Amino acid sequence: MKFISTRGSAPALSFEGALLAALASDGGLFMPEAWPRLQKDEIAALAGLDYADAAYRVMRPFLLGDPCLDDLEDVLSQAYEGFHHPAIAPLAQIGPNSFILELFHGPTLAFKDLAMQVVSRFMNRALRRRGQRATVVGATSGDTGAAAIEAFRGLDAIDVFILHPKGRVSDVQRRQMTTATEANIHNIAVEGTFDDCQRIVKALFGDRDLNTKLGLTGINSINFARILAQIPYYFTAAVTLGAPYRPTAFTVPTGNFGDIFAGYAAKAMGLPMQRLVIATNLNDSLPRALASGRYEPQGVIATSSPSMDIQLASNFERLLFELAGRDASRVRGLMDDLRSHGAFQLSQGEHGQLSELFSAHSAGEDVTEMTIRGVFEETGMVVDPHTAVGVAAAQQETSLGSTPMVVLSTAHPAKFADAVKRAIGMEPAQPERLTLKLGSEERCTVLAPDFETVADFIVSHAQAAAPLSGAQA
Ligand SMILES: *Cc1c(COP(=O)(O)O)cnc(C)c1O
Question: In angstroms, rounded to a whole number, what is the distance separating the alpha carbons of residues 251 and 113?
Fold first, then answer.
């Protein structure tokens, strides 16, 4: 299968090519040239499989004919070894017809582990196959960086530079990143917002010379491989609830639109899906776009669910490509409007299509806190603020009838202990693997929110030009 750019003028690449490039050379995002479909019986056959086996069957069609296909089985058999639940992504029930999909059993206690543990292994193997090194650069509002550092630390073909907005990630998130001691890991605290970090990363990727010199690659959810590794849990959850014979609805706590886009992909592959609900905190550019057809990101508001403090949802471009009937010139036009006027307007047809499958609801800080309390009082279960935003959005959704609703639980409550304590008066239990991390010394460099400054730092610390030797990782 080939991967094409949403902006239409970059050459199509193999999966391995798109994995290593992350962003297309025309500034667009990679998409599969067509969605592979799983037949009803193939979906039904996922029931009862080990998570890694189910993931193999869901991901395989995207890799046909690609060198990475030979890695898939090994990558998946290792990727989930550090998870602390045998089901990897278990379902819990919180109401008569509502469920929580627990995606936080990985090493950094957030759903990002599910994809990052897969992507890091694919990348190191692909680089070793090509005898190359790469430099991973990523922006994080907290969880991506922690998951990336955990997944890439110690890999021999890759240096990792993670930018986070200084003072805008939780204590636990920061420590999970800055306590890594491996020489290939570099933390940069940018004096600005997540959007500043993301802007700098985009500018780095837009710089041809730097790209060549460093072998830049990205692990933010702009990398299609991340999206790909998030599709399987939609299938495993839906099959547990009766797919393909019964549709499911999902609510997804949303920031960059990567996780929910994986849900869209699952539907495009044939999973019966009644509705996808976009849940946001006060950063509500997507719910406003759903209501009006006009996408107009505003200033970022800091909330108790910081991994969703995002106004400019990068992966929304992938959905635009679909809504526009895969017309890349239309996507370019909309993205030009966004760049020059700070907004774009969907056509009636595009807006109509968007609303057919998606709903969107935002939850303010009070509602989020009340929801943590409500779930605790009704079920005894402690949910984190991101998950609570999801539960609150699911409660606002009235279109469901008898369809089961699955809320994606994207972080373990111990990662956001302060917010949880405010809501229920006590701290969530802290898993031992987190306690061990938090005591260690921190390593981090503070830099101005400025492209040149960050680029200079990376150039002087990356080993991209050093020879690659040693055994296959
Ligand atoms: C990253 C993240 C999200 C948002 O996911 P996107 O793919 O960016 O929409 C939600 N919750 C948590 C805990 C996260 O780490």
Answer: 19
CATH of domain 91-108+228-424: 3.40.50.1100
The phi, psi pair for 329, rounded to 5°, reads -70, -35
* Three-class secondary structure of residue 164 per DSSP: strand
What is the full DSSP assignment across 373-392? HHHHHHHS----HHHHHHHH
Contact present, 252 and 308 (Cβ < 8 Å):
no
20 phi and psi angles, rounded to 5 deg: -80, -30
- CA 230 to centroid of ligand 1, rounded, Å: 12
For residues 32 and 385, give the distance between their C-alpha atoms in angstroms, rounded to a whole number. Answer: 33
Pocket test residue of 100, 109, 111 for ligand 1, highest count of atoms within 8 A of CB: 111
Using a 10 angstrom Cβ sphere, with 0-12 exposed, 13-18 middle and 19 or more buried, the burial of residue 145 is buried
| Gap from CA of 268 to ligand 1 centroid (Å) | 21
Q: How buried is residue 421: exposed, middle or buried, by Cβ count under 10 Å (0-12/13-18/19+)? A: middle
Q: Is 147 helix (H, G, I), strand (E, B) or coil?
A: helix
418 falls in which pLDDT band (50, 70, 90)? very high
Would the pTM count as exceeding 0.90?
Answer: yes
Catalytic positions? 112
Query: Which residues are CB-neighbours of 241 under 8 A, at least 6 positions away?
Result: 91, 99, 248, 404, 406
For residue 408, the Cα-to-chain-centroid distance in whole angstroms is 12
Nearest Cα residue to atom 14 of ligand 1: 307
Dump pLDDT digits (tens) for 377-391: 999 999 999 999 999
The Å distance, Cα 253 to ligand 1 centre, comes to 6
pLDDT band at 67 (very low <50, low <70, confident <90, very high): very high
pLDDT tens digit string along 69-121? 999 999 999 999 999 999 999 999 999 999 999 999 999 999 999 999 999 99
**Residue 189 in tokens:** 């605290």
CA 347 to chain CA mean position, Å: 28
For residue 314, the Cα-to-chain-centroid distance in whole angstroms is 11
SS (H, E, C) 312-369: CCCCHHHHHHHHCCCCHHHHHHHHHHHHHHCCEECCHHHHHHHHHHEEEEECCHHHHH
Name, in order, each residue with C-beta under 8 angstroms of 165's C-beta and a sequence gap of 6 or more.
141, 189, 190, 192, 193, 194, 196, 197
